[in-house]
Every structure is written in C-alpha cells, then in structure tokens.
Amino acid sequence: MKILRAKDYADMSRKAANIISAQVILKPDCVLGLATGSTPIGTYQQLIKWYEKGDLDFSQVSTYNLDEYRGLTHDDPQSYHYFMRENLFDHVNIDQANTHVPDGSNPDADAACAEYDTIVAAAGYPDLQLLGIGNNGHIGFNEPDDHFSKGTHCVDLTESTIQANSRLFDRIEDVPRQAYTMGTQTIMSARAILVIANGEAKAQAVHDMCYGPITPSCPASILQLHANCVVIADEAALALCPAE
What we know:
By secondary structure, the protein is of the alpha/beta class. The protein has one domain: Rossmann fold (3-Layer(aba) Sandwich). It has helices at about 10-25, 40-50, 80-85, 110-120, 160-165, 185-190, 205-210, and strands at about 1-5, 30-35, 60-65, 65-70, 100, 130, 155, 180, 195, 230-235. The longest helix is centred in the first third of the chain and has 18 residues, at about 10-25.
C-alpha cells in the first residue's frame, strides 16, 4: 500500500485524476471501477476539464460502479445512476451503454446482485478501481461485519452511514436503509486500487485501513493485502498516521 499526501481536497482531487487519466491514456479501452459520494466529485471535475481541453478520450472506456441504493429508480435524483450522469458521464464522450451501476430498481435482491456479478466478471474486473472510505471504514457499502463479503450483495446500512449520507437528502427519513454493493472480494479483483480520503472525520478510518489489523470490523483494512493499492489523502485525513 502506497500513501500519497495531499495538501488539501483540491490537491487530492488533482492527484487522483492524474492516476485515472494515465490509466485511460495508456489503455484507451480500460475498465474503470467508479465510486460516488462527495469525495470523488473534485476528481471527476478535473477529468472533465482535461476532457474539454482535448487531453482525454473516454469513447472506449467502460465503467462499473460500486453500489446503488435499493429501491431507487435510475432517474431518481438521489440514485447513483443519476449521480454519475450529473457528475461525469453527461460531460465526457463515454458511451453510456458502457456504463454500469447495480440495478437498485430491481426488488429481487438476489437476481440484481447475481446479474451485476456476472457482468463485472465478464468485463474481466476493473483495471483501476476508485474507492472512497466511510467514517466507519466501509468501502462501497461493505459495512463493518464479522466476515469479509464476496460478491455483490444487499446490505443493511449502519446508522452512521445513514447519518453521513443524510446531507444529500432533504430529510434523514428519505435515506434508503439498504443498498446493493460489490463485495470486498470483487473489489480486490481489480488490478489496481485507488483510495481517496479527505477531512478529519476520516482520520481514524484511514489510520485503521493503512496501519490497523486486517479485520472485517474495518472492511478497508483488507486493502493492505492488495498488490497495487494507492491511497491519496489530505493532511487532515492522515492526521493519525505516521509521517513518512
């Protein structure tokens, strides 16, 4: 696991966008695993700027998102389908037929999750998987548990995750209580992983991810075992980590 220090959120976003853009340039038909939430928005904005300058071409790229809320339709403004269109897909020349997000609108959890596992495996798994990290150490929506998950599955969101995500909803009552998420085994199948984190609220989770014991009580800790994992975090998020 390699840790890169960023001065602030903007610096973190630029550094992350540099790694993603290098992947796209070196392999134009690459498979990207993408994340949602507030953390990657700056990274996506930087990628859009470079696309608009003519530096990036997404026409052959395919993408697979980590997760989706259960019960939301694709056009729901709170869905991750909608988030990705608003924050990246509608602003670059990606073929939206090559973009994939778990189908939260399918009430049959087993079928929706099995279908997503099938298409991610058929794509050969991501060349590069982008991750954020939750305050409780979750990756995707893999919450702290007594075991590491395998494939895509339906998860009950913890109260801390619901509280953290409530800032994106009008009322906390509107936050879905379940989601479909790639499992940790699927995430670990990516050839390279990029984790981004910012802010003091993430400091304990970042420390536990990088330096704590490998335990499903901090799902991100399993990334210590990945052969090619880069963490980019700002000074606040690295406050509890040794200065290297």
